[in-house]
Amino acid sequence: MDCDFTAPLWRWHGDGAWFFLTVPEDLSDELEDAHGGHRGFGSIRVEVTVGTTTWRTSVFPSSQQGAFILPVKKQVRQREGLDEGDLVNVHVVAYD
User: Fold this and answer.
1) Inside any domain, residue 93
2) What pTM was estimated for this model as a whole?
3) Which end of the chain lies in a sparser environment, N or C, as judged by fewer CB atoms within 10 Å?
4) Among candidate residues 90, 86, 83, the one with its CA nearest the CA of residue 17
């Protein structure tokens, strides 16, 4: 499954400086139906493209968000000039 979405970059307010994008609910449901339940913590492996940067990571279910969340590492944020609150265009390809 692959999909595109736009979401604001947000900071998790806990230990450390973790930044995430929330996958829209409808796309989260599609990801869960197509790839869910295969890995620990309910994570799904994905390849992500933001701007000119592509990397592999996992999306994780979040009960607080009611959807999957996508971590965005510092290297990507710096390379793409992303700050908290920025709207980010994302292309995601899920794989097993």
Assistant:
1) no
2) 0.90
3) C
4) 83
